[in-house]
Structure formats: C-alpha cells, structure tokens
Amino acid sequence: MTTRISRRRALFGAGAMLSLPFLESWRPAWAEENGGAGAAPLRMAIYTVAGGTVLEAWKPEKKGELGELPSILAPLEPYRDSLTLVSGLSHGGQVQGCAHATCARLHLSCGGDVSVDQAAAQVVGGATVLPSLEIGMTNHQTKFSYREGAPLPFEMNPHVVFERMFKGRPPVVPNWSRRQAQEARQVRETARSDSVEQSILDAVLDQANDLNRRLSRSDQRTLEQYLYSVRSVEAQLGRLEERRRSETRDSAAEGKALVPEFPPESHFRDYTNSWWMWRNPEMHAEYIRIMSDMLVLAFQTDTTRVITAALGEDNAMFDGVVTGGTERQAHALEHNGNAPKNQRPDPVAREGCRQIHAWYTRLFAEMVGKLRQIDEGGTPLLENCLILYTSYMADGGHGIEDYPTLLVGGAQGRLNTGRHLAYPVGTPVANLYVEMLNCLDARVRAFGDSHTAENRSFDGRLPGLQTLG
C-alpha cells in the first residue's frame, strides 16, 4: 500500500527549499472573475499577413460604433460584434538597411529583446503542453518572434506542426465543465489541509532565511535563483501531472479524439520549396487554410494558448486574384501602389494590393467562423480568444505609421468590441501590446518602447480599449 504525499512534503523531506509555491497555485480571485477554477482559458493569437494594407479600404472614416466594414474587412461582416478596429498605431524611428527585415524586427518586439507573443507565453505558457507555437511561411524575413534577442523559427510543414502538438498524446477536446468541478474539489481539499502545508512551508522558509543571513551577497543571489528554480520546476510538474489526468478523464468520457483532415505528408513535398507555393494562389490558399486549422485545433485542445502565424508572403504571385493591369507579383504591386511621399501611387497597382488583402481576409474570416462554431461549455471558442489580425508593415512602401490593426474575439468580455478606436497617428504599437498582455492578467506597465518612443502617449496604454480600463 502506498501513501500519497504532496510534492511539497517530498521536496521538504529531501532537504529542498521552496519559496511559497503553494500560495501561487491558489488563484481564488482569478477563479471568481472567470467563473471558477477550470473555466475555459483565454487564448492569444497573432495572425500576420504581408505588405501592410491599403488604408482607405481598411480604415473606417468614422470612429465609434462600427458600421459597414471597409472593403478589405468586408468578409468579416458576420463577426462585426466581435471586432475591435484600432487605428493610428505606429512604430517609431526610421526604416534603415533592409526595410523588410527592419519592419519584421520591429513588428512584435517594438525595439526590445522579447516579442509580445513570447512575453505572453511567459505568463500563460506554463499551463499547456507547448508554451507557444510559431507557424507559417518561413524565409529570411519571417523573424517576428524573439526571446532574449534571438529569433524563434517558424515551422512551415503542417505535419511537423501536428507531430509537435500531439506526439505521445491524443488530440482531445477538454471538457471545461468537468475540469471546473474537479479543480473546485481540489481547491476545497487544499483549503481543509492548508494549515499543515503552510507549517511545512514556514519551516522551509525559516531554514532558507537563517542560511541566507550567513551567506555572501553572491551566494545569496545563487540561493535566490535556486529557490526560484525549484519553485518553477515544482509548479510545472504539478501542471503537467494534472493535465495528463484531465486529458485521460476527458478522453475516457468522450470516447473519441479529434482527427484533422488534411492531405498526407507526401502532398507537402512541394512546400519545401516555397517558390512553388507562392507562385500558385490555389496552393497558397490551401496552405493558409490548413495552417489556420492547426491554429484552431491547438486552441480547441488547449495544446497552447499563444500562437503566432505568418501566413502572407511579399513575393507571392496572385494570378486570378488581381484582375487589373499586367502585374501579379505582390512585391511589385506593393511598391507601385505605395509611392514615396509627394508622388502619386499607381491606382491600378493600389487596387491590386486591395484585392490581395481582401483575399487574405476572406481566408482569415473562414478561420474566425470555425472558432465561433466551436462550443466551450456554452461559450463559443471565439469569445475565449484575443486575435490580432495585422501585417508586419503598415503599407507596401515599408511604412511604419498607422498599421492595420484588428482585434478579433471577445477576449472574455475584456474588450470594447464592435467599435473603431482611433488614436492619434504615431501612438506606439507597444501600447497595444501592453493592453494585450494585461488581458492575459500579466499586469505590466510597459513593453518595448511604450514609455520611451518619441511619440509616447497615454502613459503606455490605450484608453477605451478594455472594458475595465
């Protein structure tokens, strides 16, 4: 017969020292705000296409309540109540060197060493199998996600993405109602025994504090790092253990697992040569749909809560999508349709850019529709999402002012949806990333250049974006 003991007690018996992980595992305030422990979590995705946008076909003339959507966004009309259109956001400084690479570097990092998706992963990534997922088209410019100043690679092959998500585990949809009841029972059981656990932790801390007083400053820092590491490992092990138990219960109860419908791996041999795909709009669209399905599946199965998808390409050809003129390459159309200041852009090329971005939005809208159709205990998955639909450039002329910025999803009631929020052109993009991180309860005051940009404003925030300010 075996006796179950907590990990804290086992670590204490082994002489390890902890810094109150028990207190961090209790989240009563969060639980009350989110309908109880185990409620469906909030997910964040960044869906990036290429070439910026055609501003007059993206940005409504009036601010406030969204009326008829501009032509590029028209495919999202059925989901207007779940949209928050933000205008005026810009990156500071000037584009130098390779303009595309510079825009890509600024895109999610705003001049810092960590991108907003990886900052989000630090907040919510410990609760899932994968802290984050970076998927989509890869080239020398697809460097959007950064951790400690180093770019993270994007995975292009959907079969590799699927293998990474589900190797050794079935793609099971969580039963959030069952998990909520289960976790509530665990909280009650913990509450009945907290005096025992607390006394153990107090004893451990007494030992740590006594030792700390007798150490040099260098050793004190080492001890502090050790305590933090042990606490982090214990917390991560606890989350993984509970996740395995929850997935086993959900799988047994539902009796089935999700099986994605996409072509066999041999179908994607041509995708190893990006040029084949970029030159064929039908293949390009198929690829975007499949990778969008991977995004939906990852969120539906709670495999990760942070995804960055790069699903556009400046070098792509758009025969059959662009109907005017003779040029079909996106990059050429972007430059001709976005002439330098004091020069008149080619209207035919600009219309071609508009058609390309409307095409991207139609594919994006298909994914949004799938997210809305998935039920999570009475709430559509879309309402448990915060999705940024944007581009890594403001326009095809390497512009960095007035980025196309659309937030999609209810973000669990945190956003003022169904509105166009117009901020002064030049307002830092970083302000938006502060708001997005705080929707995930990160409680940050600054990100990137939100407080250091030349046009810094609103104390690094975006007033009116969140329902609670």
Give an overview in words.
- The protein has 469 residues and is α/β, with parallel strands linked by helices.
- It has an eight-stranded mixed beta sheet with strand order 2-12-3-11-10-1-7-4, sandwiched between helices. It has a two-stranded antiparallel ribbon with strand order 5-6.
- A hairpin with a 2-residue loop joins strand 8 and strand 9.
- The N terminus is likely disordered.
Summarize the structure.
The protein is of the alpha/beta class. Helices cover 41% and strands 12% of the residues. The strands form three sheets. An eight-stranded mixed beta sheet has the order 2-12-3-11-10-1-7-4, sandwiched between helices. It has a two-stranded antiparallel sheet with strand order 5-6. Strands 8-9 form a two-stranded antiparallel sheet.
Provide the gyration radius in Å. Answer: 24 Å
Low-confidence stretches: 1-37, 190-202
The ordered string of helix (H) and strand (E) elements is HHHEEEHHEEEHHHHHHEHHEEEEEH
Helix-residue proportion: 40-55%
**Structural class assignment:** alpha/beta
Report strand %.
Answer: 5-15%
Mean pLDDT: 79
- Give the beta-strand count: 12
Shape: globular
Distance between the termini: 55 Å
Number of helices: 14
Largest sheet: 8 strands, mixed
Q: Enumerate the strands of the largest sheet in spatial order, edge to edge or round the barrel.
A: 2-12-3-11-10-1-7-4
Helices and strands in order, then pairings?
Elements: H1 7-13, H2 21-25, H3 28-33, E1 43-49, E2 64-65, E3 83-90, H4 99-107, H5 116-124, E4 133-136, E5 146-147, E6 150-151, H6 158-166, H7 176-192, H8 194-212, H9 217-254, H10 274-278, H11 281-300, E7 306-310, H12 330-337, H13 347-373, E8 375-376, E9 379-380, E10 385-391, E11 405-408, E12 419-428, H14 429-439
Parallel strand pairs: 1-7, 1-10, 3-12, 4-7
Antiparallel strand pairs: 2-12, 3-11, 5-6, 8-9, 10-11
